[in-house]
Structure formats: C-alpha cells, structure tokens
Write a structure and sequence with these properties.
elongated; 510 residues; two-stranded antiparallel sheet; mainly alpha; 2 strands; Serine Threonine Protein Phosphatase 5, Tetratricopeptide repeat; 2% strand
C-alpha cells in the first residue's frame, strides 16, 4: 500500500514538473564552449532535467557492471561455503555413527571448501582418530592449539588421546591448561580432581574444588565434603610427621565442613586427648556420633574414660548411645555398658537383635564376654569360636584406626565427596546371623551336676554289691520276675540312670 502511494506521488510530481516547464513562455539565450543556444526556457529546463536523470541511470548501471566480478566471486564463495558446511555436517554425522571412511571423505571435502575453519580441523582430527591414524589426529589437535578459538577443543582432544594411551602425566597437563582457559568446563574440572587425587596433591585439589564451587560446577555440600576429606588426609600426613598443631588445625577446619566425618573426628579427639583436653575430645565424638554412628567412635570414646570406675564408664557409654539411639552402634554401647556393670543377662538381651541380622566378629566377641560372665568361661567359648570365623566390619576404620595409603585416601576422598560415605557397599552380603532359638539355647545355664551325697551313696552301694557278690542282670527283666537285688540296689540303679541322662543333656548343649 505504501509503495503504491509513493508511486502515485512520484507520477504526480513528474506531471507537475512537466506542466510547469511547458507553461513557461520565456526564452533562454546563452553560449557554452563556443556554442550559442537560444530556445524556450521550458524546453531547455526539461531537457536538462531529463539529461540529469539519464546520467543518474547510466551511473547506476556502470556501477553495477563494475561490481559484477565481485558479485560473481562472492556467489562462488557462498556456493563453496555451502558445499563445505554440507560436507562438515555429513562428516560430523559420520563421526557420530562411527563410519570412519565416510568421515574422512567429508573431512577432506570440508577442508577444501572451508579452508582453515576450526570445525574442519576438529572433524579432520576425529576422522583420523577413528581411522586409527593417531599421528594425523595428534597433528590436527596440536594445530588447533595455535588459534585461541580452537585451543580449548585441541586440548580436550589431546587429553583424550593421552588418557587412551595411559599417559596420565601428559593428560594432567592438558586438563590443567584447559581448566585455566575455561574454569567452567566440567570435564576439565573432573579430570583435574581425578588426576590430582591419584598423585596425592591434596592442596591443589582443594583449590580446584573451591573454583568449581564458585563456578557452580559442583553443589556446595559436595564441595564441602570433598574439602573436609582432603583436609583430613593432609592432617593425617602432617600428624605422622610430628606436626600436631597443623594437624589439629586442619581437622578442626574439616569438622566445620563435615562434623560427622569419622576420620577427622577420631584424629581430632585423639589430638585433644594427648593435650589433656578430654572433655573437648568427648564433645567432638558426641557431635560426630549424632550425625553418623561409626564403630571407631565407640572405641575412642571408651578409651577416653578407661581409668574411671565401671559404673561411671557405663553411664558415659549410655549417654553417647542416646545421641543416635536408632543406630546399631547404640545397641553395642548399651551392651558394653551392661557388661561393665556385670549385668550379663541385660547385655545378652541387647545383643540378641544384632546377632540375628548379619553379625560381625566384634558383636560375637561381646556376646562371648556376656555369656562367660553369666554361665562361665566354657559357655562363652562357643561364641568366641563364632567370632573367630565371623566377618569383620567392612567399614573403613572399624577397628578405630584410619591408616590408609595414598591410594586409599584418594578413594576415600572420592567416595565421601560424591556419595557421602567412606567406602562403596561390599560386593557380598554378610552371612545371616544366629536364630533366636539358637541364641536362647547357647545362652541357657548349663545343667547341674549330680549332688555329691548321691554320688557317695552310689559308690558305697557299688562296694556293698561287690562284697555280696551280687550280679546286675543284663537285658530286660520280666515284670513279674522276682527281684534279685535289694532296695539299696534299686536306688543305685536309679541314680546311675539319672546321672547318665544329665551327662547326655550336657553333651548335647555343648
């Protein structure tokens, strides 16, 4: 609509101009370049206007003619680029499919049409790698390092090549350089952490985790767990070298981030105890036990108060168990407290539920102690034998110690950071426990022995029988047959049968 209006206005303006020039009745006389002219002013002005329009038209056409070669070249470049982009797209599709031959073909076409474009170099490198030409792939990736826009892609390609060859030192260099270029790159972040843990660079890995936390590459809680584990690993190392002050400082920092991290809590409590700060050590263990119960907490907590009276120690153990009453360790603490108080039956009652569900050697040993206190050492020997063949607690530090190698600490840091646990679940389940019926049988009091008076009477009867020359009948005796022994002999036979029955029952229990 607007174009039609502009066209109509142009026609009206042109018609008005022609009418205006035609209406002029004056004449114009003059001389230019030695030529005299004389004519109506309208005709001359109209001619000049027409000449001006013709000049503009011719100038425009001349400009188009002069620009024609450039337009032809630009069109050729566009066609070439379109062909290159099509080849690049098909080449990337071939890489995704895994067709090495097709990828190599399209990489060459794309490189021919797109010159030195970053994506063509990447496609060429990937195609060469798929074809098994590692040298060509390395050359392509290395060439990409020279341009800022392709440096990061080249580093990733070289990193993957180095990892495939097992050259982890070279891979670490490429990953660290890539992380310096792009601190928000997830693959570089994960790689630097993994390779840093392998070589025990706890401080460097902490710095990387801090950068990742700032760049939202990892959740805050995950970053805090990783930092706490790394601080603890370093604390154990410096503690072993004798620097107790630095070790305590690092464990305190770790516990601020992860109060329930067992290795940090145990080391801090031990260092506090060595300085005579028993109360502070106990508070560390109590806080850690509240969040996540661990067997190491029980051992070190009990050791803190080993010189106190049994009743006071039992009270402290029950106090610790109340911090996490639903845990398995709380039941063990209650059993230990009853054993300290020599409340053997109560200790057995606390241990029964644990022994019916995947018990470990320490739990069998506690039961042996309780049964021995209740029924004697011989009765507890059965449970000691079971403890000897039972599996140990699979959790790291279950024995109260956390002495790991560098590789062990690296695995622990990874597990705790990523999964909030000290180790992965065991591959095999712990064997089923003891049935409730068997527990009741093995904890029952042993049958009483024959009274001494009856045993003496039996011996005397035997002597009298030997003196009288009486012979005990063998085999069954008829109901109406006359008795060949007196009343004293009947009592002797009864006592022998009762003793034999009691002995058999005792053998069955044992």
């Amino acid at each position: 609509m607007i174009r039609i209006l502009i066209f109509l206005l142009g026609v009206i303006l042109l018609a008005g101009t022609i009418t205006y020039f035609a209406a002029l009745d004056s004449r114009i006389t003059g001389e230019a370049f030695g030529v005299k002219f004389d004519g109506p002013s309208g005709l001359i002005m109209g001619g000049l206007f027409a000449a001006f329009l013709i000049v503009i038209y011719l100038t425009h056409k001349a400009k188009d003619i002069m620009a024609l070669p450039g337009k032809i070249k630009a069109r050729d470049r566009q066609v070439k680029r379109d062909r290159g982009m099509a080849a690049l797209t098909r080449g990337l599709e071939a890489v995704a499919v895994g067709d090495a031959a097709d990828a190599s073909h399209h990489a060459k076409v794309a490189q021919r049409h797109l010159d030195d474009m970053a994506l063509t170099r990447l496609l060429s490198a990937q195609a060469a790698q798929m074809s098994g030409d590692e040298l060509a792939a390395t050359q392509s990736y290395t060439a990409m390092l020279e341009a800022p826009e392709t440096e990061f892609l080249g580093l990733k390609g070289l990193y993957l090549q180095a990892m495939a060859k097992g050259d982890r030192a070279t891979a670490r260099g490429h990953a660290e350089r890539a992380f310096r270029l792009r601190s928000n790159a997830k693959w570089a972040f994960d790689s630097v952490i993994e390779l840093g843990l392998e070589r025990g660079a706890w401080g460097e890995v902490r710095d990387v985790i801090a950068k990742g936390k700032r760049n939202n590459l990892t959740p805050a809680d995950k970053a805090d767990r990783g930092t706490a584990a790394l601080l603890t690993a370093d604390a154990f190392a410096v503690s072993a070298s004798g620097d107790k002050k630095t070790a305590l400082s690092e464990t305190e920092a770790a516990l601020k981030l992860a109060p329930s991290f067992a290795p940090a809590a145990v080391l801090a409590a031990r260092l506090y105890a060595e300085d005579g700060k028993t109360g502070k050590a106990a508070k560390v263990i109590e806080l850690a036990f509240t969040g996540a119960a661990h067997p190491a907490f029980i051992k070190i907590y009990d050791a803190l108060y080993k010189d106190e009276e049994p009743a006071r120690r039992a009270e402290r153990l029950q106090k610790l168990g109340a911090k996490n009453p639903t845990s398995r360790e709380a039941q063990l603490l209650a059993a230990r407290a009853h054993i300290l108080l020599e409340e053997w039956a109560s200790a057995i009652t606390k241990l029964e539920p644990l022994l019916t569900t995947a018990p470990t050697a320490p739990e069998y040993a506690l039961m042996a102690q309780a049964v021995a206190g209740l029924n004697g050492e011989a009765a507890g020997r059965v449970w000691l034998e079971r403890a000897a063949s039972a599996p140990l607690d699979p959790r790291p530090g279950a024995d109260g110690e956390f002495h790991f190698t560098r590789e062990g600490w690296a695995r622990l840091v990874d597990e705790y950071m990523n999964h909030a646990r000290l180790s992965p679940p065991p591959l095999e389940d712990i064997a089923a426990g003891v049935s409730a019926e068997e527990i009741r049988l093995l904890t029952a009091p042993p049958p009483p022995d024959a009274p001494p008076e009856e045993a003496s009477a039996g011996v005397a009867a035997d002597d009298e029988q030997a003196d009288d020359g009486a012979i005990e009948p063998k085999g069954p005796v008829a109901k109406d047959a006359p008795s060949i022994v007196d009343d004293d002999d009947d009592e002797h036979i009864h006592n022998d049968e009762e003793a034999e029955r009691v002995a058999a029952a005792a053998r069955e229990v044992s």
